Amino acid sequence: MLTQSSFAQKALIGHTEDDKKSSRAEKLEKGFWNGLLNEMLPELMIPLQGRGSEHFIWQISVGEFLLLIDMAETPDIIEDSYSINPGCFLNVSKMN
């Protein structure tokens, strides 16, 4: 989730206390732990078709301009080839 996007900005409206000391990334992270991601992107939280399992947030890593949200049925090691983390594939795209 890009923290500086208008999508993230709109999501914070009405969902955060009037906390001037926290950064936007910190407010988003706190909101995601409290269910904001379910409201922003409900299609991510729907059980996979044919499987009755749900996805859960296991970890949120804070970057300079993004939050990396690890979601899965169970905690696991994420392989770079299956990640949508821009840091994993931006170097490769420069070689194309």
Can you lay out the helices and strands and say which pair or pack?
Layout: H1 6-12, H2 24-33, H3 36-40, H4 42-45, E1 56-62, E2 67-72, H5 86-94
Antiparallel strand pairs: 1-2
Structure, described:
- The chain is 36% helix and 14% strand.
- The protein is α+β, with helices and mostly antiparallel strands.
- It has a two-stranded antiparallel ribbon with strand order 1-2.
- A hairpin with a 4-residue loop joins strand 1 and strand 2.
- The chain is globular and about 35 Å long.
- The two termini are 25 Å apart.
- The model has no long low-confidence stretch (mean pLDDT 75).
How far is it from the N-terminal to the C-terminal residue, by CA?
25 Å
In spatial order, strands of the major sheet run 1-2
SSE topology string: HHHHEEH
**Overall number of domains:** 1
Strands, count: 2
How many helices? The count is 5
Largest β-sheet summary: 2 strands, antiparallel
Rounded radius of gyration (Å)? 15 Å
Shape: globular
- Content-based structural category: alpha+beta
Arithmetic mean pLDDT: 75
The low-confidence runs, each spanning 5 or more residues with pLDDT under 50, are none
